[in-house]
DNA sequence: ACATTATGTAAAGATAGTTTTATATTTTTG
DNA sequence: CAAAAATATAAAACTATCTTTACATAATGT
């Protein structure tokens, strides 16, 4: 699962810790998601979408076929 | 997390088993998601959105505050 | 160059999503 | 009404997400 979190952070000059804070998850969770270690839960994806005023599809890109 | 899976199935006259099959998960997973027992993973939400040609937000509705 | 801040990584443990198998209940159909 | 199909539910096991703690490396600012 690709995502634009790093870019969205950069546009706002936010650190991973800032974003983690805004989404109320740990910094490591943000780092792991940005690095593609695992996918965010659906509720977390919704929270991120709300935070950035974007659709989930505008932040996360699914790479699985079908 | 509310969702419109039951309605979307009904519109197509699909059973839970049919949908499970289309999404390649078990029938119990569909049932549990429809009944709100747990949230689908983000990849599964993407799969459902692709299947129905809808945005994730048009199928699932997050209820958490913030 | 040094100090500070940000990012990457890892292990252990908790919680949530998913499968499999099995059974019970409800709905649909003949 | 009886049979069949669909839905609900449950337990055990497995995998994935997420937290906490801790440390290492990279980037930034003075």
Automatic annotation (TrEMBL), chains A, B:
Residue ranges occupied by any HTH cro/C1-type domain in the UniProt entry: 5-59
GO molecular function terms attached to this record: DNA binding
Top-level taxon: Bacteria
InterPro entries from the UniProt entry: Cro/C1-type_HTH, Lambda_DNA-bd_dom_sf
Keyword annotations from UniProtKB, A to Z: DNA-binding
SUPFAM superfamilies the record matches: lambda repressor-like DNA-binding domains
Protein name listed in UniProt: Helix-turn-helix transcriptional regulator
Protein source organism: Aliikangiella marina
